[in-house]
Amino acid sequence: MSDDCIFCSIVAGEIPSRTVYETDDVLAFLDANPLAPGHTLVIPKSHHEHVQDMPNDLAGDVFAVMQRLVHPIESAVDADGSTVAFNNGEVAGQEVPHTHGHVVPRFEDDGGRPIHSIFGERPELGDDELDDIAASIADGAE
Ligand code: 5GP
Ligand code: ZN
After folding, report:
1. Rounded to an integer, what is the distance from CA 84 to the centroid of its chain?
2. Which of 22, 45, 100, 123 has the smallest CB count inside 10 Å?
3. Which tens digit of pLDDT belongs to each residue from 18-67?
4. What is the reported pTM?
């Protein structure tokens, strides 16, 4: 548990939340300021700031809960689909520094856009740059 972390306080029961599902390691609850009805957050119960800070197994557990909840969430609010995403890092819009996945129900006429719409102009990358980037990622993933 991290002091001054809202989500750690929710896990500890110090701040109320509308819990929809939990396991020993993962908690899912309704977002307090939802982008759509049914907007749900899924967090590890232990404090990790970023996606990559979680142990591999825990990251799998968090995603498994997100995947399990998609259908119940969509059914509960009669949604047509959902955006399933993490804001990872302050620069990416992460406001609460305890990693959390969003499941945001989507509706045919909700006026929302795809994740691609977050970004501006696409970078022009040559084949050599793409090869270098791919090789560098592959090295790091070893
Ligand atoms: P972020 O921008 O960090 O990806 O998303 C943080 C989310 O947490 C926001 O959607 C915000 O509405 C939600 N949130 C912030 N504080 C609380 C809280 O105390 N309780 C709940 N349930 N949600 C919160
Ligand atoms: Zn925390």
Report:
1. 7
2. 123
3. 999 999 999 999 999 999 999 999 999 999 999 999 999 999 999 999 99
4. 0.97
Q: At 113, is the secondary structure helix, strand, or coil?
A: coil
User: In whole angstroms, what is the distance from residue 2 CA to residue 100 CA?
Assistant: 15
Q: Give me the phi and psi of 60, to 5 degrees please.
A: -65, -40
Yes or no: say if 66 and 42 are a contact pair by the CB < 8 Å rule. yes
Best probe residue, ligand 1, of 4, 41, 98, 100 (max atoms within 8 Å of C-beta):
41
How far is the C-alpha of 111 from the C-alpha of 113, rounded, in Å?
Answer: 7
Q: Residue 61 is inside which H or E element, if any?
A: helix 56-77
What the block records as the tokens of 42 is 């899924």
